[in-house]
TrEMBL record:
This is cyclic-guanylate-specific phosphodiesterase. It comes from the Bacteria. Signal peptide: none annotated. It is found in: Cell membrane. Keywords: c-di-GMP, Cell membrane, Hydrolase, Membrane, Transmembrane, Transmembrane helix. The keyword Hydrolase applies. The chain crosses the membrane at residues 12-32, 234-253. GO terms for molecular function: cyclic-guanylate-specific phosphodiesterase activity. One of its GO terms (cellular component) is plasma membrane. It comes from Nitrincola iocasae. Its main location: membrane. InterPro entries: CSS-motif_dom, Cyclic-di-GMP_PDE-like, EAL_dom, EAL_sf. Its EC number is 3.1.4.52. It is a multi-pass membrane protein.
Amino acid sequence: MYLQMKTWSFRNFGIVFIIFLLLILSVHLLAIKDQRDKQNEFSKELLAHAETVSTQLLNATDEAQKDNINSCDENSLDTIRKITHKYLYVYDLGVVENDAIVCTANWGRLPYPATLPMDFYRTNSGFLLYSMVSNIFPAALELDITRKNNVAAFTAYFAFQTFLDRNERFSFSIETVTDNHAFIYYQSPAQSVSWIDLSFVYDGVNTKLCSNIYGYCVHTFNHRFGLFYYNKSFVLFVFLIIFMFSFIISYAFRSYVYNKNSMEYRLRKAIFNEKLYMEYQPIISLKTSKIVGVESLVRWNDEVYGRVSPELFISIAEKINLYKYVAYQTATSSIEEMASVLKNRENFFLSINVSTYEITEENFLSDLKKKVTAEGFYAHQIKIEITEKIEVPLSMLSDFSNRARHHGFRVSLDDFGTGVSNLVWLTEINFDSIKIDRIFTQSLNDELKKCMVLSIMNLVSGLNKQLIFEGVENVDELDLIRACCDDTYVQGWYFFKSMPMLDLIKILNVESADTAAYE
Ligand SMILES: Nc1nc2c(ncn2[C@@H]2O[C@@H]3COP(=O)(O)O[C@H]4[C@@H](O)[C@H](n5cnc6c(=O)[nH]c(N)nc65)O[C@@H]4COP(=O)(O)O[C@H]3[C@H]2O)c(=O)[nH]1
């Protein structure tokens, strides 16, 4: 037992662990996807903005070129001031002489020519790009410069500020296509704090988006991808939630499997898929030794539970409120299956068992009558067996029995002697026959019980009711019944067990052939 529990919990823990891993992986992959989408979106925005800035710088230098600006006279300065004023992202325009800026629109003639650095990038269209140049103006400014011949345009220091101020958790840069010159580089502080290094597994979520107009691309770098993107306590919280989810999912999964194999679930399926079927147990007249009728008995053969006792599955069907389907399925199929036999033998009867539902459902008897009429045999050929074990008020039973007889059906009191009935039943309920329960049949050798049965028999024969002994299993029981009363009906494994309709028909045909030969 202990070992079983240990294996059980070990297996369950394994399931929880697998679900946990799968969930973590899914969340991780979703986070990666989300980060990639976000970085791509950011790149699009940044590239569009960079193109606007570049276009303004190029237009400004082009316009100055067209106006032949190559000296620092007042006219030239006025012209470049007007041009600078037009473009938001152009901080200043300067005149270059011998690789040094001599005057600018904002500052006029500089006190000394400011030499441009030797370190620049030359674009295919002949622009020279300088990064973060300081010491040009008599103020602490560090600006990018775009130069064409003798005109230099200064990028406004705030041109990319909104992007830098976002404090993205990934790094980004704007680099020339050949990747040897970076205009902007932002190193996210979040990227430099690494609580786990995964670079050996995966390079990271990196994106690259290039301009169709200019020779540069926007790059984003994210080495702390997926779940590692977020801070430790958040990730820990996510792990905890996922762990709880894994427990819930594994519990739900186990409940589902358990429910799927539960008898309730399987019975529900069997009822809706019409997997219940009927068998028939012959009832014999002791006087003629002939089969005078059959009792229909419902059967359920389940793949998991095997052949389940009708007493058990009927009580489950009642509990899960599906008995009404069983009631109609059993009545309908036994009537349909036995119709040919009943039509050919007017005195042959079919006993059907009923429970509380049939007794309390107003339309059951009229529906039954309609079915019998449609099949073309007589209502008196149907015997309704009311078990004594039923817990329905006597008045209701009596009313049901009266209505049944009014429709032409016969009524039998089943399992007599075992249930809740008392002798009042015998007078208050209108019935045609009494079935003595097998508890009495099988103990007729017990003097006391024999005495009781004899008394019942005397009582019942006085009431002019047909007696049926059920559960006759051997010849001794049969002899004892015969000795007490030979004008009675018997049913039991000594004669026949319940059987499918086709087997019953074969037996009835043999019996008819024997009778014909004897006559
Ligand atoms: N030991 C022994 N048993 C014998 C012998 N001869 C017959 N039996 C069994 O005794 C039961 C007789 O049916 P019941 O008393 O109406 O008792 C029935 C009846 O109350 C109920 N039942 C069966 N079919 C239906 C149905 O279609 N509708 C309803 N409402 N109840 C049904 O389930 C009960 C049990 O049915 P089964 O298991 O089929 O059990 C049947 C039958 O197989 C015998 O010689 N020895």
